[in-house]
Amino acid sequence: IHVSQDSPLVLQSDRNVTVNARNHMGQLTGQLTVGADAVEAQCKRFEVRASEGGKVLFSADEDEIVIGADRLKVTGTEGAVFGHSVETPHIRAEPSQDLKLESPTRSLVMEAPRGVQVNAAAGDLKATCRKELHLQSTEGEIFLNADTIRLGNLPVGSFSSSSSSSSSSSSSPSSSAPRQTIYELCVCPNGKLYLSPAGAGSTCQSSSNICLWS
């Protein structure tokens, strides 16, 4: 079936248009059906190739689906949904766009046998959570390397030389007393940190209310 040059070929049907391919024994080896609701292809392997060079842009068989285009772009507002796992050596956001990894209802897990690296070469790295943030190393160490390390919003305990009157309630210095500018970082037995006014010796107290009521 052919038409003259620069003329379209039209196959029209009230139901559907079906193209069948058969082998020398008459067995059906491939079928393309254009219907009112869908276009269906039944074959061992389906391929879409580029007009120039014949590069495979899309292929599908029983084992896998391959997208050979340089870029796969999903324009839907909900993005791409994967029912199981995703394997990739690289995750990258578009230029001038932020990369966001989010699990709205469950947890987010990133695993690698040789380590997971998160790097912000020209900006800040921020981790925020609603409840607790755990940093855990089962066999190694947790190493913080920076010009400045700050621990904000730590409670301040008041030091008393008398063990019976020791307490950790925050108190503002009186106008006559010199302003306290140097503090000691104390660790409770349960691991909680708090600040204690620095003295000639250690002012940390295990009986501090900050440790007892934390």
Automatic annotation (TrEMBL):
One Pfam short name: Sarcoglycan_1
Gene Ontology terms: cellular component: cytoskeleton; sarcoglycan complex; sarcolemma
InterPro entries: Sarcoglycan, Sarcoglycan_gamma/delta/zeta
Membrane-spanning ranges: none
Subcellular location: Cell membrane, Sarcolemma; Cytoplasm, Cytoskeleton
Main location: membrane
Membrane topology, as annotated: Single-pass type II membrane protein
Keyword Metal-binding tagged: no
GO terms of biological process kind: cardiac muscle tissue development; heart contraction
Keyword terms: Cell membrane, Cytoplasm, Cytoskeleton, Disulfide bond, Glycoprotein, Membrane, Signal-anchor, Transmembrane, Transmembrane helix
PANTHER family noted in UniProt: SARCOGLYCAN, ZETA-SARCOGLYCAN
Similarity remark: Belongs to the sarcoglycan beta/delta/gamma/zeta family.
Name of the protein in question: SGCZ protein
Species the sequence originates in: Cochlearius cochlearius
Gene: Sgcz
